[in-house]
């Protein structure tokens, strides 16, 4: 006999798209019981046990999904590059723009010169549209400081996002994002710079519970990857890798051998890469925004990822140069139309598999007992509508830690 469940809130009146095991697994006329910000019971409303709730919320139809997870962003940076975007469309080459002081180095200079409060306000401005359409967890990378001091400044700002807005933040150190301008004459020193002061293991109080760290690597030479992997491992940080974006370098296979959480971009990944990732459980993070803006023509090998059972996540890659994207739902549509994912795969890509890419699959990404009570109510008839509708913000009610956000 099941004992009575006491909870803070009971939510029902909609179909629940649980996303267990990366599938819809819909509970028709489902219900969620929440206590202390976690799900303590989930099932069909008609089959509920004895429950007493301090508050009961009934929706008038629609669907409930897990809170969306944007697992690859660069939300903290100074300035913007809209002028360069316009220049490129007017026929100015990237080389000419770089010679004028543009490109990633312009973002580096703007980020280094911006005070923390300015960076925070700009990052909040970019994050709010993502939150408005159901994102409850976001990863934020550094990478535009390219000095230990500036990189740590970016990470502090990213952590403050979790203190000032109702969102879970995962911070990622991407300090080898580009060659710092002061090292242009001695590029090999980047290996030493990356492997020594970059990944200091901070004392526990420095990392709030809603902002936990990992390390990310940009694909310089393979000999340098290993040094950065080693530095991250010494610091106790899980690793991620930008891999196979513009050519096949074997980075995703190497990352898989180091048990990386994810390899990201992957347009030029090979079957060997897919096989290694599938065996290691490394997530393939697809970034259709950058693919679209750069007018790429080679798609990630989705069929190979399916064949080798590689979890596929989707992210905005929100950044000033190649993906100024502030809609994760639009990225879902692009992943379906450009990369040929199914709507179910796309929703898994911004829920369970995105959580897995951040090492959060035990607490986030699906609606199950024991997981955080982050979920979204949508006045929609079926989950495929999340991918189907283009433009605008679909009306939704976002619940973060059991409270309406």
TrEMBL record:
An example molecular function term from Gene Ontology annotations: zinc ion binding
Protein name: Imidazolonepropionase
One example of a Gene Ontology biological process annotation: L-histidine catabolic process to glutamate and formate
Binding site for N-formimidoyl-L-glutamate: 144, 319, 321
Residue positions binding Fe(3+): 72, 74, 242, 317
Keywords, in A-Z order: Cytoplasm, Histidine metabolism, Hydrolase, Iron, Metal-binding, Zinc
Keyword NAD appears in the UniProt entry: no
Binding annotation for 4-imidazolone-5-propanoate: 81, 144, 177, 245, 322
Entry's cofactor comment: Binds 1 zinc or iron ion per subunit.
Protein family per UniProt: Belongs to the metallo-dependent hydrolases superfamily. HutI family.
Gene3D superfamilies cross-referenced by the UniProt entry: Metal-dependent hydrolases, Urease, subunit C, domain 1
Species this protein is from: Serratia rubidaea
Gene for this chain: hutI
Gene Ontology cellular component annotations, sorted alphabetically: cytoplasm
Assigned EC number: 3.5.2.7
């Amino acid at each position: 006999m099941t004992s009575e469940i006491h909870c803070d809130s009971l939510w029902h009146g909609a179909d629940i798209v649980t996303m267990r095991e990366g599938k819809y697994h819909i509970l028709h006329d489902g219900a969620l019981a929440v206590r202390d910000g976690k799900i303590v019971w989930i099932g069909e409303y008609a089959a509920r046990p004895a429950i007493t709730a301090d508050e009961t919320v009934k929706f008038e139809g629609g669907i409930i999904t897990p809170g969306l997870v944007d697992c690859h962003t660069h939300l903290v940076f100074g300035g913007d590059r809209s002028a360069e975007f316009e220049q490129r469309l007017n026929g100015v080459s990237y080389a000419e723009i770089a010679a004028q002081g543009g490109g990633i180095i312009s973002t580096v200079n703007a980020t280094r010169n911006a005070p923390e409060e300015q960076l925070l306000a700009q990052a909040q401005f970019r994050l709010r549209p993502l939150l408005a359409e159901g994102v409850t967890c976001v990863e934020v990378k550094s990478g535009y400081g390219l000095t230990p001091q500036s990189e740590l400044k970016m990470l502090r700002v990213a952590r403050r996002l979790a203190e000032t807005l109702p969102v879970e933040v995962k911070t990622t150190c991407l300090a080898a994002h580009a060659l710092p301008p002061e090292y242009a004459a001695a590029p090999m020193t980047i290996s030493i710079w990356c492997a020594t002061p970059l990944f200091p293991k901070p004392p526990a109080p420095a990392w709030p519970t809603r902002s936990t760290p990992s390390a990310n690597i940009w694909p310089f030479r393979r000999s340098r990857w290993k040094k950065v992997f080693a530095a991250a491992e010494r610091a106790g940080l899980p690793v991620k890798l930008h891999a196979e974006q513009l050519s096949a370098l074997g980075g995703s296979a190497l990352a898989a051998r180091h048990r990386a959480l994810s390899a990201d971009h992957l347009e030029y990944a090979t079957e060997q890469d897919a096989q290694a990732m599938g065996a290691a459980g490394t997530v393939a993070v697809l970034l259709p925004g950058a693919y679209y803006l750069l007018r790429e023509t080679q798609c990630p090998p989705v069929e190979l990822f399916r064949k080798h059972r590689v979890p596929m996540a989707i992210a905005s890659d929100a950044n000033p140069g190649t993906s100024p994207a502030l809609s994760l739902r639009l990225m879902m549509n692009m992943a379906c139309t450009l990369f040929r994912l199914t709507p179910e795969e796309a929703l898994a890509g911004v829920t369970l598999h995105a959580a897995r890419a951040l090492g959060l699959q035990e607490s986030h990404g699906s609606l199950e007992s024991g997981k955080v009570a982050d979920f979204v109510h949508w006045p929609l008839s079926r989950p495929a509508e999340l991918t189907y509708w283009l433009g605008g913000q679909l009306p939704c009610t976002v619940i973060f830690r059991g409270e309406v956000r």
